[in-house]
Design goal:
Largest sheet: 5 strands, mixed
Shape: globular
Helix content: 10-25%
Number of domains: 1
Oligomer: single chain
Strand content: 35-45%
CATH superfamily: CheA-289, Domain 4
Number of helices: 3
Number of strands: 11
Length: about 160
Amino acid sequence: MSEANVQTRSAEQLSCLLIQLSTQNLLLPNVSIAEVIQFIQPVPLQETPDWILGAVEWRGVKVPLIHYEAIVDELTEPPKLSRHSRIAIFNNVSGQASLPFFAMLVQGIPKLLKVKTEDVKIDEQNIELSRVEEMAVATPLGRATIPDLEYLETLIIRAL
């Protein structure tokens, strides 16, 4: 296969993860997630917003753990944990050295999804987005939101 064919093919399709939260799904590029691990109890952090659940130790690094839905919906109660609760470790996308990774409480194991441009449609039924959400979409596996990871990282850095 020629190099031009490989580039065209890779431009047509993106490896994504569909991540289940308690009340919604997130659609993210596969490269934004470093690893998904079993839930471990975070160590509380002092003087942080309710949506920062604490910090977890991952590969020798202290990583802040967030409750995404608490940011979006401005919830103040603690998240509901289940046997499906996991922690997704996110790679830094903004280049800010002070936050190489952050973690998010998720439910279950993310689903790998090869996405073509024509497979993802703007979700017209979900037009009210929070500042941390870029777009609501409909995928072959259901509705999802695409978060603004750079803005999310900025929020975390400010809160710490």
